Amino acid sequence: MNKVLLGVILGAVLGAIDGLTAWFTPEVRDQIVMIVVFSTLKGVIAGVLIGFFARKVNSLALGILFGGTVGLLLAYAVAAMPDPSGKHYYFEIMLPGTIVGLLVGYATQKYGRSARTA
């Protein structure tokens, strides 16, 4: 499987799982469907970016670093938005988002296939 497609699929699956971790925060359980949908979308965006990076740069360490950075930045963008009561969930959003980015960065470099040249 090519690196971009692997990044998209893995980002979507891990993003959905990341969104499901919101169940452990009782204050937001009533918003779980919306959280899972947007977390999946965030995972897909991260997967595309990480997959294209992996296609251009063939380094496991840089792929993991880039994945973690993308995951952290996207998670920060989400965490910066407060819930209806004005509360932020930086740790609850940024930790799993960063882990998703690290895993996608690792997998795209380790298991993704580079684009073939004609």
Topology:
Elements lengths: L2 H18 L11 H25 L3 H20 L10 H22 L7
Helix pairs in contact: 1-2, 1-4, 2-3, 2-4, 3-4
Describe this structure in words.
The structure is a single chain. The protein has about 120 residues and is mainly alpha-helical. The longest helix is centred in the middle third of the chain and has 25 residues. The protein has 4 helices and no strands. Helix 1 packs antiparallel against helix 2 and helix 1 runs antiparallel to helix 4.
What is the compact description of this entry?
72% of the residues lie in helices and 0% in strands. The chain contains four helices and no strands.
What are the main properties of this structure?
mainly alpha, about 120 residues, 4 helices
Strand element count: 0
- What is the element string, with H for helices and E for strands? HHHH
Characterize the largest beta sheet: strand count, sense, and whether it forms a barrel. Answer: none
Shape: elongated
Which oligomerization state do the chains in this entry correspond to?
A: single chain
- Note poorly predicted spans: none
User: Overall mean pLDDT score?
Assistant: 92
Distance between the termini: 17 Å
- Rg is 15 Å
The number of distinct helices, counting runs of at least 4 residues, comes to 4
Structural class: mainly alpha
Could you estimate the helical fraction of the residues in percent?
over 70%
Strand content bin: under 5%
